Amino acid sequence: MTEPASRPLAVVTGASSGIGEEFARQLAARGYDLVLVARRVDRLTVLAERLRAEHKVECTPVEADLARPDDRDRLCDKLQPERARLEMLVNNAGFGTHGFFHETDLQRELELIDVNCAAPVHLTKRLLPWMLERRRGYVINVASLSAFTPGPVMAMYFASKAFLLSFSEALWEECRDTGVVVTALCPGPVRTEFQRTAGLSSKSRSSGTTPVAVERVVADGLAGVFSGKRVVIPGYQARMAALLSRLMPKGRALKTVRAIQEERRRQSRA
Questions:
Q1: Which of 20, 66, 164, 222 could form a disulfide with 15 if both were Cys (CB 3.0 to 4.6 A apart)?
Q2: Residues tagged active-site
Q3: What is the full DSSP assignment across 56-108?
Q4: In this predicted model, what pLDDT tens digit does every residue of 116-143 receive, in sequence order?
């Protein structure tokens, strides 16, 4: 068993379920010690205990509301003593809202901006310099296939992921040749708790492509960042959809996305 001080450390936000939980599992299997971050510390504690037993790594659950700057700073301050071995940051925490913008709740939309945009910026701003000092590190920002087009009826969610994609690609270039890689992971539909949190029925249709298993999404994301990729889109259909979104006239793309989202809305209300 490797001594803790010599093992790399990874921070995973939104680790209590879905993609974040799977990142924790796969990183633990690779021998990373983990700091698991979410609001639901009870779930984090159960996951941490399981990963410790299965993979003999250290797992520290940290309760934090990433919509709050104070909680984000507290997390970074907690990580300060481990800066010499902090090797990976997975900015996965995020959620969506669904509905016409003039009808959705303002405070919920502002919270979405805080979690989906401000939190990755804040954490990356604090932790990236440590990686650059060591000339080694990886940042994965979990964006979405939604990042490639505006999203009527989910306007703020699509916009937040477009921000995250642009931010990640810019940092990838800034960090080129430094030993640090910043990758945007842009999955299409994945069966997680996202739909319920966004107010959608689990029976409503996906956003147009076949859902990809969460295990595949995370495996592709890790393979991509370790090989220096700027953007990773898991699944052939999702990659084709991203390409089409760039080639399709904007007006047609907007109408297509609106039709899909309005159908999802009707299914959720049925």
A1: 20
A2: 157
A3: ---EEEEE--TTSHHHHHHHHHHHGGGTTTEEEEEE-------S-TTTS-HHH
A4: 999 999 999 999 999 999 999 999 999 9
